[in-house]
Structures are given as structure tokens and as C-alpha cells.
Amino acid sequence: RTGYPVSHDLVSVTVIHDSAMLADAWATAFAVLGAAQGRAVAEARSLAVYFIQRVGEDFVHSHTPAFAPYLEDHAEVASQ
Predict the structure, then answer these.
(1) Strand, helix or coil for residue 60
(2) Residue 37 Cα to chain centre, angstroms
(3) Helix or strand run (H / E) with residue 63
(4) C-alpha distance across the termini of the chain, in Å
(5) Which phi and psi (to 5°) does residue 7 adopt?
(6) Bridge partner list, 48
(7) pLDDT tens digits for 11-68?
(8) CA pair distance 41, 46, nearest whole angstrom
(9) Beta strand pairing status for 10-16 and 48-55?
(10) Which residues of 12-49 are buried (b: 16+ CB within 10 A; e: fewer)?
């Protein structure tokens, strides 16, 4: 937006899309927008997006509803 590096807490964005080109374009756009605005845009378009934000010394993970089917049940995986 300004030509300067982004200055927010979003550290990673993953987008799943039928088109790799569009997934990359959306991920770049969301990285510029930040988590709150990026999530609003992603949800409005029903896109499957996973965000990782830095909060203090921790990382907080969140995703859009469309991303949920791509997540494994970690409890089930750990018991195998």
C-alpha cells in the first residue's frame, strides 16, 4: 500500500485454492492486509486460509471456516 515493509504481527499465510497462481496471489494480498482485514476478505469470498500471528513470545494460529476440512485431528494422529 505504501511501498514500505509491512509492520504487523502476521508471520505466515497459507491459502488452498484450485489454482496455485491464485493461492499465491491471495496469500500475498493477505500478508499485506494483515490478519484481521485478510480474514474478513477471505471469509467474504469463502476462501480456505490459515493464518499464524505472533503475539508477544507466542504464535497464534487461526483459519477460516473453509480451511477446516483440511485440518487433521491431531488427537487421532497422535494415538496411531
Answers:
(1) strand
(2) 11
(3) strand 58-63
(4) 47
(5) -135, 55
(6) 16
(7) 999 999 999 999 999 999 999 999 999 999 999 999 999 999 998 899 999 999 999 9
(8) 9
(9) antiparallel
(10) ebebeeeeeeebeebbeebbebbbeebbebbeeeebbb
Residue type, 79: S
Q: CA-CA distance, 32 to 38, in Å (whole number)? A: 8
pTM over 0.85: no
Q: Are 35 and 51 spatial neighbours (Cβ–Cβ below 8 Å)?
A: yes
AA identity, residue 71: L
- Residue 9 DSSP one-character state: S
Instruction: Please give the Cα distance from 66 to 71 (Å, whole number).
Output: 10
Asked if 64 and 43 count as a contact pair (C-beta separation under 8 A), the reply is: yes
Task: Please give the torsion angle defined by the CA atoms of residues 55, 63, 23 and 76, in that order, rounded to the nearest 10 degrees.
Answer: 110
> Which grid coordinates are listed for 64?
477460516
